[in-house]
Each structure stands twice: as structure tokens, then as C-alpha cells.
Amino acid sequence: LHSTERSCLLRELHRFESIAIAQEKLEVAPPSPGQLKHVFFHNALPFVGFGFLDNAIMIAAGTQIELSIGVVLGISTMAGKYTQVQNDLCSCSSSLAGYVEALASRLGLSIPDLTPKQADMWQTRLSAHLGKAIGVTIGCILGMFPLLFFGDEEEKLEEKN
User: Fold this and answer.
1) What range does the domain containing 31 cover?
2) C-alpha closest to that of 60 among 145, 159, 127
3) Cα angle at 88 between 78 and 150, to 5 degrees?
4) 3-state class of 28 per DSSP?
5) What are the tens digits of pLDDT across the range 120-154?
6) Which of the chain's ends, N or C, has fewer CB atoms near its CB within 10 Å?
7) How many separate domains does the chain show?
């Protein structure tokens, strides 16, 4: 950096540091219930999409793998656990998580307006973790929809044996 650039950078760093020190001394109120709801939904909605995709892909791909490789090798789904391994290795749903978050932001899901201290408070972290847990649970339940279409195939497979 040039000497003028270094001095400008140093000035800005000192200014930023003094603002951070001033904010540390301020007593910050905990987030309001409305802010905590915003944090909850901000974390829950993308995880609904992630849980949906994760379960739907795992069920659809797992069933096909079970009907092909599992039958040939004589391995049950629970014994092989290859459905989950396949889903994790392919990272299909994990790579789609970015798209789910981008879609959520396009739908107007804004970032909660919190100070750094408020974002680090236990109430905010609890709200965020609950949102993720409840969101992924709802998404996984919704992602079970492929099971509605597999009843006939399993009955046909049992009749053949």
C-alpha cells in the first residue's frame, strides 16, 4: 500500500475500533418478541426447504437403490444404510441448500435487524436453533410425499417373491 493508503486505512481502523469500544460500553436491551419471531422464521423457512429436499431425494433414490442393488445383493435398507450414504455422498440436498436460501431471500425473507450484541444473546441463539430444528422437521415430514407413490411397487415385489 502507498503511504497515503496506509494512513487512510489506519484512520478507518481506529475509527472502527472506537465505535466498537463505545458499543461495548452501552447496555443493549434483549431482542423484542417480534425480533425473536423474525429470527425464528428467518432460520426456519430455509430449513423447511432443505428438509423437504433431503427427505424427498433420499426416499426416491433410496427406493430405487433398494429395488435394484439391494435385491441383487440381498441387503436390507436398514442393514446396508446405503440410502443415507448415497444421499450424503451425492450431497444433492446439501448443494441445493444454497438455492433454497436464495429463494427465501427472493421471497422477501430479510435478515433480522439486530445489533451484534443482540445477535449473540442466548434468546436469539435459542430462537435460531428452534427455528432450524422445527423447520427441518416440518420439511422432512413434507418430504415424505414420495411414499404415497411406492405402495403398489412394494406389493408387486412381494407377490413376485
Assistant:
1) 3-159
2) 145
3) 50
4) coil
5) 889 999 999 999 999 989 998 998 888 888 666 55
6) C
7) 1
